[in-house]
Amino acid sequence: MAQLWKIRLPDGRVLTPGDWTSSEPLYSTVEIGAGPFPVLTAFSYGIGGGAVPGSPGPRRSTLADTNLQGEGARLPENEELIAYSLNIEAFLIGPDAADNELPAVDPPDANLVDMLRLQRDLLVITRIAFVKEYTRAPLSMFPASTGVVQYNSAARTQVSAGVDGYVASNNGGASVCDGRQFASPLYIAGGESLAVDIRPGPGSVTNLGGTETGLPADSRYRLRLYFEGYRRRPVA
Amino acid sequence: MAIKKVHLPDGSEVVIDEWLHWPQFSTIEFGAGIPLHLRAFTYVQGQNIPQQGVIPGGPRIANEVDTNQVSRTRMNHDEAYLAYSITYENFALSDDTIPDASPGGILVAPAPVLSSQNLRRLDRDVVVSLIIGAGIRKPQFSAPFSWIGQSAGAPAWASGDAIAAATAFSYGTGGDITAKNQRRWNLPVFIQSDRVMFLRIRSEQGAILGLTQAVRQRWYLDGLKRRPVA
């Protein structure tokens, strides 16, 4: 590997150079559809090297899905991460269900009733080194801190051909200051296993895109997860 | 079993702890028209969720999004908790409709959306108390529901018009949905290992007047948890 790991000075001292940055989050994507699934694991694949978990096809990952280098499921040997926040944003993929409890929204906005269902039913479990869990809390405890604040006046949706209004939502607030910081940051060493499991408590996201009275659940959402913190990257 | 102490050959003793930011959560469910008196953190996964009143779907077994409590009504013997805040989420379990709706009904808050009026009714009548210690009656925290900010949940942006012909809409959250919308206890509450603990949610004046939806509440203690090492 063409990389400086250590510099031995003439007096015998050894320096370990590192390029630490806090400007770049580490991110990964999963897609949640209607129907049962056991678990979808973010950070389980690298750029271009794997399928996006839960995606139809499945879809090959791009830089819009993840910036994790290597084969996935672990941090590359020449990187480190001190994460002080996990933020999860949601996008509606494809058309919203016409039979939802609220009128359909135009993608990629999230429909409020679906956002509440995702928050109600999904659990986020962070595993580091596959020994212990470092988070185990519902989706809503990891607000996006990204998104669009809308200021509308009699707006209508394209999907309803300008007939219906809508109620859009987000996983928590859309501002940077809306994110939740870990009281104790998480350290992930180079080469260490890393995974964030998205698990539905009831076995699926109940009624996602459908109705409480039994009309079919058929919406699909993309969740992009960000670890924010300090990253050590390769030098030279 | 956790390693708590290590005796070194020289006779000295080292105490090992692992503290981690770990929101502790528990869910309750209640219907309209009842004098609410429920306790959260009193069950583990696989047991019945505390319910009161008429709940669509009836009794329900707790799964992993309902609670991460590992022992009933107490902190586990190899854990401890330092709570510095409390927050909650609401999910309606039934729809709300305008009482004098025209034929077919005008939907104002379809489940899981809780209407702003119903949330305000909870604000008015419900008092929440955190009790720690067996036989202890003095709460470590007690305040009206409205005092507690909602930091987890879904904000909403309406289109500025009726969502469909003759269809009104209502949704309420306990303040802005942001991680900062939870009051920080400057003097955190410590819950020692094995200590009895629960959260009491009670409407102090009997039935919650005017409540028209069944409600699921997921309560969070936010803070640091000491957990087993090795």
Architecture overview:
The complex is a heterodimer of chains A (236) and B (230). Chain A is mainly β. Chain A has one domain (30-233). Chain A is 4% helix and 33% strand. Chain A contains one helix and 13 strands. In chain A, strands 3, 4, 6, 11 and 13 form a five-stranded antiparallel sheet that branches. The longest helix of chain A has 10 residues, at 112-121. Chain A is elongated. The mean pLDDT of chain A is 89. The longest helix of chain B is centred in the middle third of the chain and has 10 residues, at 116-125. In chain B, strands 3, 4, 6, 7, 13 and 15 form a six-stranded mixed sheet that branches. A four-stranded antiparallel sheet of chain B has the order 5-14-10-11. The radius of gyration of chain B is 20 Å and the shape is elongated. The model of chain B has no long low-confidence stretch (mean pLDDT 90). Chain B is 4% helix and 37% strand. Chain B has one domain (18-154, 163-227). Chain B has one helix and 15 strands. Chain B has one helix at 116-125; strands spanning 5-7, 13-15, 18-21, 24-30, 35-40, 51-52, 80-92, 96-97, 107-109, 126-132, 141-144, 156-158, 189-191, 197-207, 215-227. Chain B is mainly β and 230 residues long. Chains A and B meet through helix 1, strand 9, strand 10 and strand 11 of A and strand 3, strand 7, strand 12 and strand 15 of B.
Nutshell version of this structure?
With 236 residues, chain A is mainly beta. Helix content of chain A is 4%, strand content 33%. Chain A has one domain.
Strand content of chain B: 35-45%
The multimeric state of the shown protein is heterodimer
In percent, how helical is the residue content of chain B? under 10%
- Count of discrete alpha- or pi-helical segments spanning 4 or more residues of chain A: 1
Q: Into how many domains do the coordinates of chain B divide?
A: 1
Provide the domain count of chain A.
1
Q: Major sheet of chain A: size, sense and barrel closure?
A: 5 strands, antiparallel
Shape of chain B: elongated
Mean pLDDT of chain A: 89
Coarse structural class of chain B? mainly beta
Spatial gap, N to C terminus of chain A:
10 Å
**Structural class given helices, strands, pairing of chain A?**
mainly beta
Approximate shape of chain A? elongated
Q: Report the largest inter-chain contact.
A: A-B, 55 and 48 residues
**Cα Rg of chain B:** 20 Å
Distance between the amino and carboxyl termini of chain B? 8 Å
* Order of secondary-structure elements of chain A: EEEEEEEHEEEEEE
Number of helices of chain B: 1
